[in-house]
Amino acid sequence: MIRVSIAGVTGFTGEELLKILVRHPEVQIKHLISRQAGQKISDTHPSVLFDGETENLSVNIISDTDVVFLCLPHTESASAAYRFYERGKAVIDLSADFRFRNATNYRNVYGVAHPYPRLLSKAVYGLSEFYREKIKGAKLLANPGCYPTASLFAILPALMSGISSENGIVIDAKSGISGAGKKLAEEYLFSSVYGSTRAYSVGCHRHQPEIEQEILLITGKKPTLSFVPHLLPQERGIMATVYMRMKEIIREEAVLTAYRKFYKNERFVKVLPPGSMPATGDVSGTNNVRIGIAVDRRAGTLIVISVIDNLIKGASGQAVQNMNIMFGFEESTALK
Ligand SMILES: NC(=O)c1ccc[n+]([C@@H]2O[C@H](COP(=O)([O-])OP(=O)(O)OC[C@H]3O[C@@H](n4cnc5c(N)ncnc54)[C@H](OP(=O)(O)O)[C@@H]3O)[C@@H](O)[C@H]2O)c1
User: Fold this and answer.
1) In what helix (H) or strand (E) does residue 116 lie, and over which residues does it extend?
2) Domains in the chain, please, with CATH?
3) Average pLDDT, whole number, for the chain?
4) Catalytic residue numbers?
5) What's the pLDDT at 183?
């Protein structure tokens, strides 16, 4: 059994994490950390069957923990990560604070200097299916963003199999409202979102450089890409529709075969049969990725559509998958 604590348990990803961890046979949930101590989980998350209450972060909690999940906003997470890491504890950070490999990128994207730049080189990017070997030895795990997870699963096989070019990739992505977290803002009110879809952060979303970084690191190819996120009038789910230039036009069946081969040992990834396309509802509440493929022969374009649940494979589910890899548990424990 390992002793697990969660910081930011009152938020969306914290709640999902707790739901998953209460059914994990190798985990003892020790501490639920919040800025406000004494909140009962039965009050904050009535649908989670767990009898506990929140505590403020303290040295005693750190000593009493083997692995901490940080479900905190970016720029808040780094200092908590440091406190656990320097005492030899494993850290799984769901925020963006350790996803960039260099501090200049972090400052450019997040607008502040990274407080612990030397830790960036210690962090392992937790796209589980692509970094499994590195994750096994990780003590500081940077869990990927939700849009990058959906996008990279769609893009990487085409680049790594030489089917499409790294230039001119277009990612048309859509997310349910829970992707924005619990913060109060007029644009996230029910009356602003219901019955309306809108694009936001076009050409300047913080996840674009994260996607570019990972394409370069995983494939060795520097991409040129456009990324347009949209907010959907639904609670959860991400759909990334990716358009890529084909190097030569091949049949749809050949692309499907290449994707199936690529993901053949991956229990969470399903490549759909010809003509089938995924929907966000198909993966809701699961750690699954579903991928649909079409070839537009006239335009010479490969279209790959992937869906995930932003709160599960895009956050808490992948975080538990990473913990399972780090601690040598069966990878799908508590995620089936
Ligand atoms: N939502 C998603 O789909 C998603 C997907 C991938 C990654 N992420 C990342 O995961 C992290 C958590 O996301 P979330 O959606 O769970 O966020 P959230 O619902 O807003 O919850 C964040 C929690 O962090 C705690 N917190 C500590 N310091 C805070 C501060 N200064 N301001 C606000 N909250 C503070 C709060 O708990 P207390 O008030 O109890 O202290 C809050 O409940 C973020 O970094 C996010 O970018 C989210």
Assistant:
1) none
2) 2-122 (3.40.50.720), 146-310 (3.30.360.10)
3) 97
4) 146
5) 84
